[in-house]
Amino acid sequence: MALVRPRTTADVAAALAIAHAHHVPVVVRGAGSGLAGAATAPPGSVVLSTARMARVLELDPVERLAVVQPGVVTADLRAAAAQAGLAYPPDPGSVAFSTIGGNVATDAGGMCCVKYGVTGDFVLGLEVVWADGTVSRTGRRTVKGVAGYDLTSLLVGSEGTLGVVTEVTLRLMPAPPPALTLVATFGTLTAAGEAVGALVGAGLDLSALEVMDRTTLAAVDDLTGMGLAGGAGPDRRTPAAMLLVQSDSPAAAEVLARAAALCTDAADLAVAQDPAEGEALMEARRQALPALERLGDWILDDVCVPRSRVVALLQRVEEVAATYGLVIGVFGHAGDGNMHPTIVHDRSDPASVAAQRAFDAITAAALDLGGTITGEHGVGRLKRSWLARELDPGTLAASRAVKAALDPRGILNPGAVL
Ligand SMILES: Cc1cc2nc3c(=O)[nH]c(=O)nc-3n(C[C@H](O)[C@H](O)[C@H](O)COP(=O)(O)OP(=O)(O)OC[C@H]3O[C@@H](n4cnc5c(N)ncnc54)[C@H](O)[C@@H]3O)c2cc1C
């Protein structure tokens, strides 16, 4: 195993040319926060870290775009855009430490997707180093542009298997007003799911629609001491589920009043009084995974179903938890139908084999409900064996042909995705 820490595109090109010549696998690494094992380098690989390529190269308020190196931390770009009165909406829960290169390579989502879309919706163009060390530019800086095949979109979400991204041109937008937040709690997870259906169906201008179940809420409270729901200590009465509903519309108060009226089965409803309070609630939501990690060993799923099937998915997760006698914390981007059931278990217990079965049952349920095996974390190594269950043989063959054309020696992140 070797580590390469390039500072420039020329450094990346030189490293890849050598690796290509000697058939050495290369695994690119941003912050290593990916949740599908895509940046986990197999023995004998060169790890290519983008940590030293972390500069915002350009921020153009007139063209509303930014040009950045891949190692820029997502939150740093968002802060730089905000200073110019602009916004870069993509906000994965890992926003404070994930990198733009990693976000592009996984097509990362986040809380904002319900209104603004995923990382790929903001990528205008890329500089890429192909497997043999050739440097290319894909895409554009203009508002429109359709010259040739859309290689930018091909590279977005390719998890380091088709090329190394060395520069990213990103679309920015005018900063929206600060969001207001509605908190709704429910006596059952299904009731929360039904409210999600009503909110999505009403077409309200929402900028986030997130869910946390009882297990997650209690874990977040234990981690943060926020007293999110039901107080503290063994006697607390944590609700079965909580929805965090945000709107950054200029008419947010009105939008949230309509949203509240649609949460007919809510046990409790409250509107955060100021944007800072709403942001604190969202920060609590970002702590969902770190909080659940403290409960024991865990396997995190990332399934996405049509939004009309969110209730069905939640019911299936509850059935799986009952069948295998496991604790499964559920949180996720409910407004996108993207859930992260997190199976808590004890790896040293032989009975924990049930955790893998539960994971498989949930992933299969998502496909069964017309969904996908991964909404935003990617295939990586974790779900490689699942890909053929989602893609048809023609699409798989075309994907292999693309990989063979761009990386004929198979040196880029072997063992991930395909
Ligand atoms: C607490 C927590 C919350 C999270 N929340 C979300 C969320 O809400 N939404 C979401 O989508 N994800 C989320 N994630 C997952 C993860 O943060 C994202 O997948 C993120 O995009 C990964 O960025 P990274 O810089 O850590 O990439 P890494 O993990 O280092 O790499 C991920 C993949 O990208 C490839 N890669 C990295 N840089 C490049 C490059 N320059 N060129 C080519 N390939 C490259 C790697 O080879 C690997 O295949 C979360 C993770 C954590 C730990």
From TrEMBL:
Signal peptide: none annotated. Residues 1-175 form the FAD-binding PCMH-type domain. The keyword Plastid does not apply. The keyword Signal does not apply. GO terms for molecular function: FAD binding; oxidoreductase activity. PROSITE patterns: FAD_PCMH. It comes from freshwater metagenome. This is Unannotated protein. Keywords: FAD, Flavoprotein, Oxidoreductase. Its cofactor is FAD.
